[in-house]
Amino acid sequence: MSRSLPLNALRVFEAAARHGSFTRAGDELGMTQTAVSYQIKLLEEMLGVTLFLRQPRQVVLSEAGERLRPKVAEGLAKLAEAVGDLRGASEQKLHIHSTPTFALQWLSRSIGDFQLKHPSIAVRLSTSQDVIDFAKEEADVAIRWGKGDWPGLDCHRVMRMNFTPMLSPALAEAIGGVKTPSDLLKLPIVSARDDWWRSWFSAAGIDDPGLERFPPNELGTQTIDAQVAIAGQGVAILNPGHFRSEIAAGQLFQPFELTCNDGRDYWLAYPSNRRNVAKIRAFRDWILATMPAEA
Q1: Cβ neighbours of residue 109 under 8 Å, at least 6 residues apart?
Q2: In what order do the strands lie in the sheet with 141-146?
Q3: Does any domain span residue 54?
Q4: Among 29, 44, 57, 172, which one is least packed by beta carbons within 10 Å?
Q5: Burial class (CB in 10 A: 0-12, 13-18, 19+), 73
């Protein structure tokens, strides 16, 4: 019986019992009187008892119906309470999925402002380089790197993913300063196989920088590349927008104004059919207001 519990019929029964009328129950539930009568009949046939006595111009609960009514009303109330509690808990927790670099270099430094403005919304942050499937992953919004053309998602650009070489001032001084792009090739190149390097050198007028002579390291994230550069161990190709604090503190130095972009930026993305969920709307409005210059 638990597998075929007729919840809809029980809901109709409870309304009809409460109103003492199939017509008024139908009005409450948006059903016709005939549809209400049909659901009650199905329930009676399943249970093998008569629940209502049909009298001229009225229906009256039978003895079996009187016994069933309070239990059904209590059960439906508990279900409604459980669903309401779950929905409330879900509404108060915002699950953000982000790339590791954006999470470390921007979200971790700014999310406190969002929580000050929205103290009733708790934040859960997950990080991964993977592009998640919202239909399979438990996330409300995602910060993605790409072109913002994902089907079924609303997307808002939040940061331009420009890139340019950066290094520590001390490393630049070690070779008497970095005055031309070719000077960079006198220094260790961090993540030399990154396509950004070849794009930037080409834009700087160096079509064959000889990057293959450097170790083919792959460190995984810009944050790690930046730490190598801050330590004076090489030149990294980075997005300046991520490292403003390090530049301001004199830890990183951008020797050339030339920046490039390969058409991929950071985007806030979420399912289009959830655009009006309050917590998603609150985060969207906050991040777009906080990063207007970037967006």
Answers
A1: 245
A2: 122-127, 93-98, 141-146, 265-271, 153-159
A3: yes
A4: 57
A5: middle
